[in-house]
């Protein structure tokens, strides 16, 4: 029972002490002190409206009515700060001793306006407004130092912040702002925790400023910062300053929630494919931000989902667009997400770039090429694109004003190597130039991927230089122009037996199990308006040699080609048995037949030529007998007749002249 009385007595004493404290708190004095301190620090007028009430919980102090902090004299946007009130905490022990010491200030539901004028002035630059004694000899360019102050705790709850850049028209708004700051030593470290919502995305930051006073004056000081955006985390440990903005230090970013980061930046989710940061983007390295606004990363490490890259990055702002420079290297890159496939194989079926339904007519959006200029080099040991797996890859990409030039220095693919240059120009519409050399290519997987054609096996060399323009793949293919060559080594053509067809004069040597083994095929070609033309194909096989000519309509995905046998079974063929082989129709399923009509037409043409030659010979002989004119080598019958007529005229003119002279 005695202990019970003691507890009750203690509680009564504390209650009386609290009541006494309410009477001891000089509310108006505290409010005036806080107001004067804020005005001294900012050089701006602080207006407190309504009554000032004492409080004992959670800390001893006072609470004011609405407060307003004046804006810079050049601003026309209203007060810099408004709040429902101030909650001011004071030191009780100092109060009992007869002095007032403010330990904390909390802004209740404040609305803060930050502005930069068109000439670069900032309304939060309070150093120029704060009263400071400056001698007449002090240079005007010397920055005015901030007035020192300390505070055990400064808090904001339920705040709103609005930033306006009058030079660019940019506006940024933060809501649900919660700030907790401790500045125990003006020249020492300060702890600042901030949480807010921007563009509908919440974020939190915790940071330590190594020298608060120097930082407030814009100097570069030690800074450690950690930020959380959804499931993403960003950390910086180094040095940072604000006048001008610059810094350097170690950057570690683990963006495990990329959509949250894009939402915070008010950017649409780019829906990055798997392998390029769909689920995770991690960056680390030595980061530098210069006063000119350039950003640099050295000893950089980047993780894009399962892809690990290393290298250096440089970002330079530009008048028209920024420029990104990077030197990247990787062991193996998994970019199957770019092609929407789950596995990589050089001959993965016929779902290549040319489906039987035709080329895509979807508009190609190349606007991304105009967002940033770039100079990027990449070296990788392998690149899995799903449809194919590239071996060692070394390339460079240069983008200048929406024109991208990709230099393929070395790309191992389809069992061979690819080198050359690809240009994509999106400055005015879309146009491309592809100048490539392919050596030692495995033909079947190459043609399956790009033409949905799987009947040609073997290896070969290809070289082509092609131009195209249009905003769809269909338009690009129909506009192709240029030239190229090919030289194929040993291989086979599936689905037909050319030697069997020609030697047996039977077009039924086609279908499963039929094939033509060849030793070499060479050809050159030109392309105009999407149609490839060739007239010098040379086909060499153990049982057959042939020449070929025809056209491939790339836009329509059709071909019309003729092979003429020159020898069969090791024996030369005379024209009577050189039956043409006609290959025509859609290239995915062409019609192959012996063209007997063409053979008959050719024989008829040859007979006509023989008859014409015989007639010319007879006429020439008769002309020679009657005129004595012998045809010159290479001279046509018409020229011989013309020469004979001219000689006859000359002879007649001479005869008449002699007759005339003889008559005198």
From TrEMBL:
Region annotation (Disordered) ranges: 622-649
Any Pfam family hit: AsmA
Domain of life: Bacteria
GO CC field: plasma membrane
AsmA domain boundaries: 5-203, 311-536
Biological processes, Gene Ontology terms: regulation of protein targeting to membrane
Name recorded for this polypeptide: AsmA family protein
The organism of origin for this protein: Cereibacter sphaeroides (Rhodobacter sphaeroides)
